[in-house]
Fold this sequence. Notes:
Layout: E1 24-35, H1 38-41, E2 50-51, E3 54-55, H2 56-69, H3 71-74, E4 83-93, E5 96-107, H4 112-130, E6 138-148, E7 154-155
Antiparallel strand pairs: 1-5, 1-6, 2-3, 4-5, 6-7
Helix pairs in contact: 2-4
Amino acid sequence: MDQLSHVQPNGKAQMVDVTAKDATFRTAKAEGKVLLPKIILDLFQNGEWNSPKGAVIQTARLAGIQAVKQTSQLIPLCHPLMVSFIDVQMEIVHDGIYICSEVKCTGQTGVEMEALTGVSVAALTIYDMVKALSFEIEISSIGLIEKKGGKSDFSRK
Length: 157
């Protein structure tokens, strides 16, 4: 590809025209991590931690699901999609919380941005819920793991 699909030859942004594309099954998975200092990580020793703001992991999971459904309102050139499946999972690991989002739909364009948005907002929610204890929190390694459907498939692992 010698030109970005969201940029016209004159340099102006454009929404990609998917009118002529066939609707096909699409899926995408994304991942990310919230790195936590020991003072916070120790609070998650038994899994979920109920901070003064509530259950951190469950609230972040719900925020990620909601974010997937709002992606086209957050990212200006994303198409609104009829998403058929959303899963946002979290796992407490040695240095923080690992987040994985999977999104599916049948449509004319992929769900990569939706999966990435789910991870990003879940991570931001964790940050918001624990920041009173430390600002030594880092959101890192957000990226696409795989996508299927459309012109090409992709897999990082």
